[in-house]
Amino acid sequence: MRTSKSTTRRDLLLSIEKEIQKTWEENHSFEIDAPTEIQEDNITQDKKKFFGTFPYPYMNGRLHLGHAFTISKVEFAVRFERMMGKKSLFPFAFHCTGMPIMSSATKLRREIEKNQNNQNENENEKNENNENNENNENNENNENNQNQIQNQNQNQNQNQNQNQNQNQNQNQNQNQNQNQIQIQNQNEIQQEKLKPIVFRSKKKKLKQKSRASNIQFLKEMGIPEDEIPQFINPEKWIDYFPPITKQDLMRLGLAVDWRRSFITTEKNPYYDSFVRWQFETLKDLNKLHFGKRYIIFSPNDQQPCLDHDRSTGEGVLPQEYVLIKMKMQKIPKSLEKLKRKEIYLLAATLRPETMYGQTNCWVSPNCDYDVIETKTGETYICANHTTLNLAYQDYFETHGIPKILSKINGHELIGTPLESPLCQYKTIFALPSFSLQRDKGTGIVASCPGDAPEDFIMLEDLRKNEDLRKKYNLTDKMVFECEPKSIIDIPDYKECYAKQVCKSYGIQNQMEQKKITQAKDLLYSKEYYTGQMLVGSYRGQFVREMRSRIKDDLVKSGQAIIYSEPEAKVISRSGDVCVVSLTDQWYIDYGENDWKLQVFDHLKTMKTYHEESRNFIESSLSWIKQWAFSRSFGLGTRIPWDPKYLIDSLSDSTLYMAFYTISHLLQGNFDGSKLGILKIKPEQMTKQVWDYILLGKELPKKSEIPRKSFELLKREFEFWYPNDLRVSAKDLVRNHLIFWLANHVAIFPKEKRPKSVRINGHLTYNSQKMAKSTGNLILLNDAIDQYSADAIRFVLADLSDTPEDVNFLPTSANSAILKLTSHLKWTKKMCTHLKDLRDGPLENFFDKVFENQLHDILTTTKENYQNMLYREALKNGFFNLQNARDKYRANVGGDLFMHQDLVRQFLKAQITTLSPITPHFCEHLWGILGNKTSMLQEPWPIDKFVDHSVLSANDYIERLISESQKILRTIFKSKKHINLNTKETQPKGCIFYIRRSRKSWQKIVLEQLRKIYDLYKNQFKLKQKEILKRLCKFDELKDMTSVMMPYVTYMKKEAIRTKGRLLADDLPFKERDVIYQCSDLIKKILHIQEFSVLYYDEVKEDEFSSLVEKSEVGQPSVRFYF
């Protein structure tokens, strides 16, 4: 019983949603087409349409709450724009391209095979145990039988003794053989019992438990267990999840035109044709090229692994290093067999110019290094991960296969004498370091302690640690002979500036990594931008200009090689650690200068809603260069002119918004296996046809498509394009959104390019990141079951309006359920008693206040929606609106004393402001009000005049009462011995002291604040110091800082709160009149019998002069009397 009661409110919302969704589906409420030819002339003049999109999600599972958070931004926008009288389109599709589905299917197949193998092993073990048990039973039976025979033989005649002895000997031999067999079987059984203990440690079980099983994951998504094996086929994922996704999103209440939905890949011949057209067009524009490029690469998949092919490491790029060849002057004993070879340690560096300052190199004593031979015959020593990366960068005979001659432990390398390029010393030594990252660079670092704080402090630590030097047999010559010297001149720094910086940061030892990092960042930046070389052939020249030249010199002279690796760890969806490979590939040159400048120019015309979003896009656009789009493996569309390659998932998803405009006319279902209403076949969609529809080129003469069909396709595209709004999470900025912009700029004219983009952060659930591996992945369908769709939408709207990450709390969802159902209950109550409420003209002060508040909130909420500030829209359109209703109800004496016209206005206003966010709930409320039509047909109310003088007067009264209550509390607090519950202790009345006009200095301050407020477009961007400097130019204000600045702070806050209205010299109302208008309320709340209002100049000079002096325009002083 308790459980059913606790879910009653939630269940009510779910039942409402189910009913409303059924109505929407039956009425095809969200299916919308471009206007007919007759209507087109009237509508396109004002272009009353809105086209919003969301990046279609991958179909490797059901959607979760994180998807819903981003989707909700488009959903709210589309519903609001529809209320603004626009034809509003929200299409939705399903991304099946690339590796996500392929990898999921492959992992599932491996998991099923592994489970089957384990099952077979267990069955074999079980059968083996059964056989052993049978053998044991047979042995016991045989032994008993032999004892019986022996007893019988002892009772026989002595004539048979010889036979008995013979039989006994035979039996003993037989028993010995059987016992041997038994012992052997028991040993085997014991060994089998030991195997699980050896290989199944608790640690391994915990590790496996932390990973999400693919089988379990599919079960949790509602897939029957006997159906799961079918998902080893990628086609099953493509067939299964798009309809499920549609179902989940319909439950969320999305206003989507599902006729336009489609899947990607060559399985959909219409979309396949569209993508082929896009890339043929890019090729014609000379945007595509072929050649070898460094690329993040999956050895397992044997193809490039870019952002959406990865399970971790999205956004990680190849990092180029210069590998310095340090020649070993003495070969360690373990490498004696290679003594005829010249062997080099490879030291990785990003700053080749600092090699002039080498004093030693660092190696890790705990690392095992590879000894490798390249195809040029040179022998190098480096870390194992370096070997693997080099193998894919054509340093060995066979691509991807390294030649490893031997292994050597870092301990053996310590103390090795080396000859290093550019070094000012003929010999330096390999010294131990315990802080080297084994998976970064080569595991070997050239030490330049004059210019690198970390090198300096490590060398100092080693010099101070005699025990450590003895442990590794390091002589003084190895450690002390080479002194640190700065080889770069930096302004304001002396010789050996690494030492100087370490001292300034207070770095005592190498364990203070945070300080060391700060020192490095500071020093390396100054080196690059202001440093000049002190030594070498480039002496006197700036580092920023010479770095690449020094690198080239080292490589050309054979003293270094170029090497790349991922700048951070990347794991593919197939589960392997990725490398950097030098690979033949088709790529898009997004770094082309003219193209990039055009994208920057277009971005200036776009609305981004937040300045940080614009900055993020601009910075991402700055670094983008070439993007490899060819893949050998996965799902997708094949490159038309090179069909052995597929187009990657981030490249076939840049222009598909255009496909939405006509997809419902071409295809009859998601995968295009059925013809659409125009009966156009996929093969009829030639490049010339696409050119005509999308680019306005000449109508194909030989096409079999009827002219009327051409006109309809053209009209749909022309009406809906461009894309008015694109909403995306911030993780897609560095790739998808940049590609989206660049492709539109390259292919479409200016008028068809995107108009706005809204970026949001990621969603956590209960303050934890959502992920399969942690089990904290909340599927959308489950969330709706738990909280209802409108409660979820309410919470999603109430999260941050900025691009920052947000947190979904279950308590917030439960609170939303309570708020919505409470309002529903109150609405029903008021509709029942509406005729019993007060009517007639709105003469009451609080009637006027509430009416103006309704008009003001509607206008403000509309502005919030227009700027996609949904948290603000909810704050104003629900919380502030409800608060205004509550105060009005309290001010007039209760529900039944409210004015019936205002209650009607309030109920309609509440439905209006909430409708984009909680549409099922509002549709239901709309019916309760007696309306027969759908709320979807209702426009946003036209703005009505707001009398701000009334609102200002109300704010004034609220502050007056609040400040008076504070004074009363202070009075009572000072009289602790008084019983506050008796009437004798309550004040009899009070006097309010007010001013007729502002003081002269205040008028000067307000005039300057008005100028600043207008100059910065209704904001105060100047700091307090700058405002003070401006005000002090007036002689009258120079000596009033202590009084003036608190007043400035207060008036700035009031100006922002009232949108600048209180910056006027005079209030828009008469203080005395307003106070007397609200006399009943003031007496009631302050528990007084009487009060009076006196102007400043009506008070005698000696009577409470200090109190009266504190009064200001809009800020009365109050004196209570008892």
TrEMBL record:
Matches recorded under Gene3D superfamilies: HUPs, Isoleucyl-tRNA Synthetase, Domain 1, Valyl/Leucyl/Isoleucyl-tRNA synthetase, editing domain
Keyword S-adenosyl-L-methionine: no
Compositionally biased spans, kind Low complexity: 130-178
Reaction(s) catalysed (UniProt annotation): tRNA(Leu) + L-leucine + ATP = L-leucyl-tRNA(Leu) + AMP + diphosphate
Pfam families recorded: Anticodon_1, tRNA-synt_1, tRNA-synt_1g
Annotated ranges, domain Methionyl/Valyl/Leucyl/Isoleucyl-tRNA synthetase anticodon-binding: 847-984
Domain Methionyl/Leucyl tRNA synthetase stretches: 716-810
Keyword terms of this UniProt record: Aminoacyl-tRNA synthetase, ATP-binding, Ligase, Nucleotide-binding, Protein biosynthesis
EC number: 6.1.1.4
GO molecular function: aminoacyl-tRNA deacylase activity; ATP binding; leucine-tRNA ligase activity
GO biological process: leucyl-tRNA aminoacylation
Domain Aminoacyl-tRNA synthetase class Ia: 20-125, 236-640
UniProt entry tagged with the keyword Aminoacyl-tRNA synthetase: yes
Top EC class, one word: ligase
Region (Disordered): 115-178
Family listed: Belongs to the class-I aminoacyl-tRNA synthetase family.
Cited NCBIfam families: leuS_arch
PANTHER family, alphabetized: LEUCINE--TRNA LIGASE, CYTOPLASMIC, LEUCYL-TRNA SYNTHETASE
The protein's name in its UniProt record: leucine--tRNA ligase
